[in-house]
Here is the input.
Amino acid sequence: MNSLLRSIADRWSENATLCGLVPFSRVFTGRIPQTELYRFPYVSILTSTGSPLFRTDKTRASAGPVTFHVWVDDDHLEYALDVAAAITEAYADTCWSLGGGSKVFDVGDGGEPLSVQVDLPNVKAWEVVKVMTFYVERNRVDTGTCCNASSDGSISWDDSSS
Amino acid sequence: MAAVVGEARFQKGLERAAAKAMRVAAGWLLTRMLQDVGHQTDVRKGPGSPVGTPPYRRTGKGQDSLMAEATTDGAAVGVAGIGVPVLGNNYMAMWDDENGRLGVQRSWLSRWKIYRPVLDQIIHGQMQAQLGRM
Here is the structure.
């Protein structure tokens, strides 16, 4: 099963429009490079823990924020906004499999991209942040021996901890 | 009477969803701060922890708090948290200085403030997810 972050990155690599704007080699899913040393533009994708939505006997679903950080030179804000629009087009209201029975079952658009100007002595840039909410349903991996169901359907409780 | 009870339950549900949404937003802020620590540790050498200790995070200081610490290469320790689960101006960001003193660093306060609109969008998205599409 792919991680959500890996899966989002893979979809970027398969999208000609996105790769045309920011090549996949400039898309980062881990630690972002030193801003001072790296040439713009680049994109960093950040996933974060979401909140649980529901669970079934086999799966559990959650909704978590995913932010796309588009970094460009300080005179390329419009370009970054174009990238943000392409990100919305590519990901919003989509669904796909993560493998192993898990899936992204919806992607909510977080609204207008947010622009942050970085004006430091050594760095002049725009950081445009696109927020989206990813709805993910994963297979449950239940562990522990507190409840043991036998083949005849009866359930015995392990009370060894008491 | 029934309307009053229903309203109270709705209010309770709303508060619970808001608390969850803010925790998620705070978690995002921690992740973003830890990402920035990668830069900080390359340029700031404090008297802190041993070289090579990876960044880590933890929960603590009450059930509604989140904390993150990053201690790579003897650099500063960052802490971000969220306290009382209510909507409003309730985020915190603190940072050790180069001498290891814990305090609120102006640059980091401004750092999280620039992400305030992002936090608001995350909270809104989480509220939508919790309460159903509005």
